[in-house]
Amino acid sequence: xxxxxxxxxxxxxxxxxFAQTDSNMGIIxxxxxxxxxxxxxSLDKTVVLVSADAAxxxxxxxxxxxxxSKAGFALRAEKTIMPGSKxxxxxxxxxxxxxxxxxxxxxTNKQFTIVGKGAGLFYGLQSAMQxxxxxxxxxxxxxxxxxxxxxxxxxxxxxxxxxxxxxxxxVAFVKKYIDLMSQYKLNNFHWHLTEDQGWRIEIKKYPKLxxxxxxxxxxxxxxxxxxxxxxxxxxxxxTQDEVKDIVAYASQRFVNVIPEIELPGHSSAAIAAxxxxxxxxxxxxxxGDRTTWAGSRMGKQVQQTWGIYQDVFVPSxxxxxFLEGVLDEVLALFPSKxxxxxxxxxxxxxxxxSKFCQDLIKTLGLKDEHELQSYFIQRIEKYINSKGRxxxxxxxxxxxxxxxxxxxxxxxxxxxxxxxxxQNHDVIMSPSGPIGLYLDSKQSNSKDEPTNxxxxxxxxxxxxxxxxxxxxxxxxxxxxxxxxxxxxxxxIRTPEKIEYMLLPRMFALSxxxxxxxxxxxxKNFAEERLPxxxxxxxxxxxxxxxxxxxxxxxxxxxxxxxxxxxxxPIPGSRIYYTLDLSRPSxxxxxxxxxxxxxxxxxxKRVLKTIVVTPGNRTSVVTETILNNGAPDEKTK
Length: 636
What we know:
Shape: globular
Distance between the termini: 33 Å
Low-confidence stretches: 1-17
């Protein structure tokens, strides 16, 4: 125990200087350039905070509040720097020469200067706060290495999505989500507000959208199709006042909120409220044989399970009038240039069956139902364009002909994005699958991972992705305006689980969205900067996924003699392991030195580890099979 306490004490001391010794000053996302200088700036009670521009007052207040929370004292505010005084200077002078959203930080022995305007100054503040040692003894000085940083984003669109249709979350958590985004320089919050399983935004013209469409009578248990139904009524929506509050909160943090109103598919909740929006209003909602159901099966229903459903909006004038009424209220709530209209996973079977739809196809001279969907999307785009806004749609909007001014969000891999860019349409890359930007997939192969939608995505997989496809010409590449990570919530009921699925993968997302390719360095990210940010999280109530020990692989290793060197993924954390097939705990062997393991011919061993953080959080169990010619059978 004394050895463990000494180990922890020494590690914690080293944490305070870790950010200063890192070549990138511990900053995520990594800046365009970081040049360390001789000397250091000592932040103490004698330092004044200088900001002559009233427009910078919010940033000044945020900085002072941060210093109070970490060091226990506030800085005196001044308009000018007095000769000989030490100062933190926030200034917009020279910011016009910086790229959009860019900033500059210059730290000398006497002065800590952040240059930027608007979002640029705000992002400079985020980097400045990341450089400060944490923790700090209350009332003591904070020493920061002299440095010059020049920084600006690679992409103008840096997005993160949140689905509240399947499960919704308190306003306070949505604000926390936006805080996390802004701290890591993500600037577009894609808010997925409508789904088959729930309509989550108040529309005053159509009150049944929330009185009926926001309520489902139960939810499946476990992965689709479920092992039963919980028979618990699930309901909720955001009032327009709550939406206004969130949009204003985000704006103060330079985050744009993009609402998504799904059409023509994923519309079961709206159809349950207003059945006339369906091709077949008289039909009961289809409920599959494998689906367990709570309550009545008669009439139109809000779906209780996940998937894709045939009952979609009918492309009638009544439907377009309805959607225009919805959009009028949405446009009044969200000042965003972009309105996301979905367009994905919209089956065509009801349209094929519907005499109205088939007659409309003939009347409009369309080839098929795919062109009918294009007509639907173009009608909506024309209306939104008439209001001075633009649409984003999932890549299915390419099918049947792309709406003239649409931006495409490529989610089914990268092919949709490539096709759209070749047609000179703007593109946001958000691929699912092996590229890993769907953050509801599992983060390891451990049996301990919570219920998830499937797939596999780690922060290192995300980090390795370049959103610019090599197949495109330079002109076509200019249409790739950004990248986005998506959080779908079929299997995420709580804010804590969102945090677990989001962090640390969001850190990797921020770096591929902001930083130049030439500045990316996975080793520096994973072993020097990421541990600092996880340690800061560990001191809070925010949940996160704890990485596996550095140096341990989940792949089978073959041979007779093994030397396995492990490193804790978070400073001050501890690694425990077993080799006897038992589940490791704090009662297992505490790892201190590289493991030397010899395995007789025809046998194998299983190295199982856990990580216990300084805050006493425990990771999932990671397993590595060490095999020396044993039969390929399941290890018991």
